[in-house]
Amino acid sequence: MLKKISIAILFSLTTSLMFAAEGVKLIASTKDLSDGSVSLSTLYINSNSLVVKTNMKGTEASILFDANKEVLTYIDHTRKQYSVVDKATMKELGKQLEQIVLMIKAFYDNMPEEQKKKFKPLIEGNRNIAYNKLGNETISKWPTVKYEAVSSGEKLMVTNIASFTQLDVKKSEMQALPKLLDLIATHLSGLEAVVPSASIFAQWKGNDNPMFNEGIPVKTTLYSEGNATEETTINSIESASFNLADFKVPAGYKEQKIDLNQSMK
Question: Helix, strand, or coil here: 261?
Answer without folding.
Answer: helix
